[in-house]
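Board notes (copied after class):
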Amino acid sequence: MEFSYRFFHAFNSSESGYVFMWILLLSGIVALAIVIERFAFLTIKSGKGNASQLNNVITMVASGDVAGALSICSGSSKKAVFQVLENVLASDPSGSDQVQNVVDESMLKVIPHLEKRTTFLATIGNIATLIGLMGTIYGLILSFSAVGKPGIDAVEKSTLLASGIAAAMSTTFMGLLVAIPSIGMYAFLKSKTQMLVDEIDLYALKLSNALLISQEKVAGKSYDGSPQA
């Protein structure tokens, strides 16, 4: 209880180092907002696609039913992997080079949205640590200044010394309180993003192969049905 009182009292403008505390608090709020937004986006809006649906899309494309596959992708277009597949199928590429170019272009449109703002968490975590360290140094400077001041009685020196040390410890604690969760959530969201990117890579490759198989079948039928000289 005593710790909580002293910690929250450090935000009071009468306390040394309160500016650092408020900067760190604002940094923590920004980090929390990013975590909530990114988690919702990566989990709910652009989370992993249904494996059964994805495999159905690949099977339908390989059998030549591109319209049916496109219909499935359109119904699940909020998911990142379906967005890529839909973009590729809508472009109707022909030939291995064109298929690969369309796949790459579609991935470049979708993947940056998955990675957006996540790196800010690592930056906030590093900056919060440095701001906490700066507050620590500031508090220690106040403490040593109080000890070295002439003409001040022992009681006042003790008060100034305690105030400086409190500022140093409070800002250090607050800096770590912001930095540790920020860096931890950065690692978590980065891992989640990588899982989605890996899924996109896998099914984009499968779709490329399925398109080429379908086109080869069509080309083969055209060749077999052509009039002989």
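Comment from the instructor: Residues 15-214 form one domain. The mean pLDDT is 83.
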